[in-house]
From TrEMBL:
GO cellular component terms attached to this protein's record: membrane
Keyword annotations: ATP-binding, Glycoprotein, Leucine-rich repeat, Membrane, Nucleotide-binding, Receptor, Repeat, Signal, Transmembrane, Transmembrane helix
Gene3D superfamilies linked: Phosphorylase Kinase, domain 1, Transferase(Phosphotransferase) domain 1
UniProt subcellular location: Membrane
Topology of this chain in the membrane: Single-pass membrane protein
UniProt cross-references to SMART domains, sorted A to Z: S_TKc (SM00220)
Record GO terms (molecular function): ATP binding; protein kinase activity
Name of this chain's protein: Receptor protein kinase TMK1-like
InterPro entries: Auxin_Ser/Thr_Kinase, Kinase-like_dom_sf, Prot_kinase_dom, Protein_kinase_ATP_BS, Ser-Thr/Tyr_kinase_cat_dom
Binding annotation for ATP: 130
Region (Disordered): 29-54
Protein kinase domain mapped to chain residues: 102-237
Length: 237
């Protein structure tokens, strides 16, 4: 695969030897304690035939774009010992802990679908947790929400933020994405003085514009299924 730049198989409960790749290819294997071992270590008292919780397919509602296209549609993430189709199902208890019970101090932003919180997992991985608005979830329905998650987990592009996991617990519907430390593009375009940062150079603006266009092109016609972002703006990039 001469075009391969990065392979991310984190948090998939994989085991066995990692194959060799050409120089320059980044391989991420975090969250797989049995990587390099012939057989995985079964946790005490575990039932390899059983599944914790119900059958959670996946879904979502708005895709997030980014060179940094970063952060706004849905969110839910990692830690419960349950994986389906490469998407991690996480307990509400874990997400409450890593966001300090959804503290206002951890709010990254608010959107039409809910509020995004910053969190940090026990291994130090930073995440963005989207807590869906209850009203929106009632309107959408659980089945539709799950089917959308299933579709979004298949969307993979270098300029799109991938859905890493989710949590469905009673009225709580959460989605988890990779954390983007630079924040939204709007901060660098409009709020740089207030943030005490340098204004973005025009060359960098052009580069980001092209990256956004490539992400949108993928969503609109190159993915297995066509997606419409519906809310593309600097604060969502």
């Amino acid at each position: 695969m001469p075009g391969l730049v990065e392979l991310d198989v984190s948090n998939n409960q994989l085991h066995g030897k990692v194959p060799s790749f050409r120089e320059g290819v980044v391989v991420k294997t975090g969250g797989n304690p049995d990587i390099g071992k012939d057989k995985p270590q079964a946790p005490p008292g575990s039932n390899p035939q059983g599944k914790s919780g119900g059958q959670f397919k996946k879904n979502n509602i708005g895709a997030i774009i980014g060179s940094v296209l970063g952060g706004i549609s849905l969110i839910g993430l990692v830690a419960a010992q349950h994986v389906e189709s490469g998407n991690m199902v996480i307990s509400i208890q874990v997400l409450r802990q890593v966001t300090n019970n959804f503290s206002g101090a951890n709010i990254l932003g608010r959107g039409g679908f809910g509020t995004v919180y910053k969190g940090e997992l026990y291994d130090g991985t930073k995440i963005a947790v989207k807590r869906m608005e209850c009203g929106m979830m009632v309107e959408k329905g659980l089945t539709e929400f799950e089917s959308e998650i299933a579709v979004l987990t298949k969307v993979r592009h270098r300029h799109l933020i991938a859905l890493e996991g989710h949590c469905l617990d009673g009225n709580e519907k959460l989605l988890v994405y990779e954390y983007m430390p630079q924040g939204p593009l709007s901060k660098h375009l409009f709020d740089w003085k207030e943030q005490g940062i340098q204004p973005m150079e025009w060359k960098r603006r052009l580069s980001i514009t092209l990256d956004v266009a490539r992400g949108v092109e993928y969503l609109h016609g190159l993915a297995q299924q066509i997606f419409i972002h519906r809310d593309l703006k600097p604060s969502n990039i």
